[in-house]
Amino acid sequence: xxxxxxxxxxxxxxxxxxxxxxxxxxxxxxxxxxxxxxxxxxxxxxxxxxxxxxxxxxxxxxxxxxxxxxxxxxxxxxxxxxxxxxxxxxxxxxxxxxxxxxxxxxxx
Length: 108
Hints:
There is one protein chain. By secondary structure, this protein is mainly beta. Helix content is 12%, strand content 62%. The protein has one helix at 3-15, and strands spanning 17-23, 27-36, 41-48, 52-60, 65-71, 76-84, 87-94, 98-106. The chain has an 8-stranded antiparallel β-barrel with strand order 1-2-3-4-5-6-7-8. The two termini are 25 Å apart.
């Protein structure tokens, strides 16, 4: 993680709350509070129409690729996306049988 990206993450960390949605038969909104760390990792907690969840195993690469797992009490969902400015979008999947798009951004 280079210094420029770390500075971006520090700004985002101050914001804390992110809004977004995942697509599965329509858009489903979610809200998450994220904490970013200087080593390119992050974690968070939030809620959506399925229930409460945690973001775990959050990683941001030097090439702005984002990966994390969304952990519910009943199952995990894998997410992979791209950080552009302070906007993240990409794809989610549960094993190989269920997948869709997602989009998230800091609340203002």
